[in-house]
Amino acid sequence: CLVAHDLGRADLAARRAEAEERGCFDPTAEHHWVAVRMAGESGAPGTATPAVLAEAAARDRSGTAADPTTLVLLSCARAAVELRAGRTDRARDELARAVDLARRTESTLALPEALARRITVTAREERAAACRGFEDFEECVGGTDLPRETTLKLLARAAVRAADGRAEDASAAA
Length: 174
Known about the structure:
Elements (H helix, E strand, L loop, with lengths): L1 H6 L4 H10 L10 H10 L8 H9 L9 H17 L3 H18 L5 H13 L3 H15 L5 H17 L3 H7 L1
């Protein structure tokens, strides 16, 4: 379902309906973060209405026995929902929680995404903090050139350049 969302595939609605039918997106389900992420990122009619965004952002974490990686991904997804709803401060707070949780639990798989998203959000108002965020990101990935981490870094770099008013440089980075 997430791959169909990311690629904009025509069969997304059918895949999502099947996942929902199986209970994959229930608030206590392991893959609930996928539903929250799709709500925050999707521009499809009916999927990113203010009501859906509010519902996705307000889901309670309590009672969730998810592993730390899943919780970090859920926080990243919630941050995307908050941004989509225009609540930058809440998105920044959610990402700070995600980074803190990932570090405390040594959940390194999701940490690069949380750090990159934090850079992206921070770049709009605190350029110096966003630039320092790259140091955290580089320390986290250890100089690896894996596709996912490279993509996250390029998108974060594009956000910093766009915040500086360098649209062409931002486009080149993305």
